[in-house]
Amino acid sequence: xxxxxxxxxxxxxxxxxxxxxxxxxxxxxxxxxxxxxxxxxxxxxxxxxxxxxxxxxxxxxxxxxxxxxxxxxxxxxxxxxxxxxxxxxxxxxxxxxxxxxxxxxxxxxxxxxxxxxxxxxxxxxxxxxxxxxxxxxxxxxxxxxxxxxxx
Length: 151
Prior knowledge:
By secondary structure, this protein is mostly helical. It contains four helices and no strands. The model has no long low-confidence stretch (mean pLDDT 86).
């Protein structure tokens, strides 16, 4: 074979290899960036949801466990719970954008349960919902972890 031809083939092989390596590196960097974005969104949602569950809903649950709340106290608690549900709702919106379908669906179910709990007119019904919603948040945290490990 002609030496010039061999040099051209070698140069083409080298260029193709360099292109493939750069594509792989770019893809890996993009995947890493995407995981970081998801990690931040998941952490933000979980922090907001846990904070509101403990601070607002947990406090109302504890108060109602030991004393019978008056209608006025329950109405005041209802306002606090409405605000907490709004905060959780805003954090959940970002999850819908970044999460895979199974996680986004779990977050939607969680949001619906939070709103039912926040607008409950019955203290006992609220307290049962609080336990169920708390459990659902734990399940969502596990789904977040799994999602980050598989992407």
